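Hey team,

Filing this mostly as a record. A colleague (T.K.) asked me to run one chain through the structure pipeline before their review meeting, and I want the input and output archived in the tracker in case anyone asks later how it was produced. No errors, nothing strange. Just documentation.

Input sequence:
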Amino acid sequence: MTLKLHVFPLSPRAFKVMAVADYLGLDHELNFCDLANGAHKHPRFLTLNPNGKMPVLEEDGFALWEANAILEYLASKKPEAGLLPQDARGRADVMRWLFWDMAHWDSTAAIFMFQRVVKPFFMKEEPDPVEIARGEELFRQYAKVLDHHLKGRKYICGDKLTLADFALGAPLNAAEAAQYPLAPYAEIKRWYASLTALPCWQKTLAVKLPAAA
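Output structure:
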């Protein structure tokens, strides 16, 4: 059975899964999950992920949800690519940043995405200034950590591209639309520019929503 990725391409969480699959050259099928029309609440989708969220990986009766868990599964199919190191410390370093992403970075970026992208375009509502202020405080806290860590490093975990780069870099695709307070963080901007130069990054950014979406 073909490996299927159920995604809403505009989402950073979907993007990182799609980009890793492309980077690894894995044969896969993209299934559009139309969030705007409630596809994630459809009974068929809920059998794949009872949380009603995408992305979801489906393969031979196996369904896997949580974007960073999907990244690890995809990387395990091509260990020689090095996106998830095989030595214990290298692997732990990548996993550390994947956990940090979900605990801090992703959720902080999501505040701006919801307030400045989702609410105006899908809900026809104005951003909540209290939530924006909370997001700005959190962003400064965590961006400072990431920016300092990147000094002297090409990628998150050194000189080699890993899953950590895909996970932490994906939310930055929305930096302009969501208006992250990114200006002071030169190392983050330098690192992100190197990611956008990757062919898989460009290819995934070019994926469009279906015409009916």
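Quick notes for T.K.: Residues 88-200 form a domain with the Glutathione S-transferase Yfyf (Class Pi); Chain A, domain 2 fold (CATH 1.20.1050.10). The chain is about 55% helix and 10% strand.
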